[in-house]
Design a protein that fits this description.
Elements (H helix, E strand, L loop, with lengths): L2 H4 L2 E7 L6 H14 L7 E7 L5 H7 L3 E4 L4 H4 L17 H18 L3 E4 L2 H13 L4 E5 L10 H10 L5 E4 L2 H4 L7 E2 L6 H5 L5 H4 L6 E5 L8 H14 L4 E5 L7 H14 L5 E5 L5 H6 L2 E4 L9 H8 L4 E4 L4 H5 L15 E3 L4 H13 L1 H18 L2 H18 L6
The structure holds alpha-D-glucopyranose.
Alpha-D-glucopyranose binds next to α2.
Amino acid sequence: MSATARRPLRVVVVDHTAELGGAELALVRLCAALRDRPGGPRVRVRVVLGADGPLRPLLEREGVGVDVVPLAPSLGTVRRTDALRPGADPLRRPAAAAAFTARLAWRLRALRPDVVHATSLKADLLTLLPAALARRPLVWHVHDRVAPDYLPAAAVRLVRAASRLPAAVVANSRATAATLPGPCTVAYPGLAPAQLRARRAGDEARGPATAPVVGVVGRLSPTKGQRELLRALPAVLRAHPRARLRVVGEASFGAGAYERALRDEARRLGVEHAVDWVGFVPDPAAELDAFAVCVHASPVPEPFGQVVVEAMARGVPVVATRAGGVPEILDPEGPGGGRGAGPLGRLVPPGDVDALARAVVDVLDRPAEAAARAARAADVARARFPVARTADAVSEVWWRVAARGSAPRP
Ligand code: GLC
C-alpha cells in the first residue's frame, strides 16, 4: 500500500490573487466540502496566495492553512483583457516572474504536497516551472474560457500550448473545456449545502403592492453585462413603471472606470431614479430573495455562471444570455431536447438589449409561469450542483495524478 493510500492526500492550491472573484469563492466552498466529506477528509488542502487579501480570512475560517508568497503587486492586478499585452502585463517582465517562480518553488519543496493545484490562469502559468522544479505533479483548474472572444490572442495561444504540460486539467464547464486542446475533467462549481437548502418566500408573501425588483449580482465588469441591463431598463420601466433595478456587486480587478461609466449611462438614459447601486454584499442570498427576476446579461460567453445556479437554487426566475456555460445550467438538454419541459430560465442572445428587455418584461408580466419554471429550476439545481459533487470530481483527479506520481506523462 502506498503512503498516499493511508494518509490524507496533501494538496497545495495556488492562486495569484486574494481578491474575491468567482473562482476564489468556488475554491472556498470546495475546501469546506473536502473538509466536511462524510467519513472524514481524505484530502488536506493548503493554499498559497500571490497576495494577501479578503480570500485569506475566508479560507482560514474553513480551517485551511494559507501562505502568502508575494507576487510583484503589478503582476497580481493586471486585467484579464490585458493579459500578456506588451507594456500592460508585467508577466512579460521576466525578473518579476522569475522572483515569484523561485519563491514558489522553494515553498513547494518545503511543503512537499502530493499534488499542486493551480486555480487561476495566471497561477496556472506561473506554477508550471515551480511545480516542475519541486518535482510535484501539477493540476490546472481553468475557470476562464481560453478563447479570443474572452482573452487577448497572445494569451490564448500561450495558455493553449502550455495546457499540454500539467498532469491533468479541470474545467468549470463543458464550454470552458471546449476552448482547450487536450482532455479535461469537467467539475461544475457547486453550491454549499446551506445555499441549496434555502428556499425563499413565494412572491405572494411579498404582496402584490411590492415594486418588482430586477436584480443583477456580480462583479461590475464589462463581461458581466450590467451595461446591457441598464440599456434594457427604459423598456422595462415603460411596461412596469414601478420596477427597480438593484445592481449588487462592486468593481474589482481594476474595473473602476466601468463603474463610473455605468453611473453616467444611467443618468444619460434617465433611469437613475430606478437604480439602486448596492455594492458588494458578502452573501447575496437576501438580495436574491427580493428579486422578481435575476438577470445574468454577460455579452461575452460566461465560462460558467455561479450566480445563475444560486438564483435557481433559491427559486428566483432567471433571465440570462445564451452563451458559454450558461446553457449547460439552464438548458442542459439543449434547445428542443429533454422531456419537453424547456429551459429552466429565459435565455436571450448575448448583447441583444431588446431581447433582454422583452424577456424581463415577460417574467414580470407572467409571474405564475415564471414561478413554476423557477420551482423546477430549484429542484434541478439541488440535484446537479451540490459542492460535494465538485469535491468528488476534483479529488478523483488529484488521486489519479498522485498515483502516477511526478513521473512524466506517457
Ligand atoms: C470565473 C468565471 C465564472 C465562473 C467562476 C467559477 O469567475 O468567470 O464564469 O462561474 O469562475 O468557476
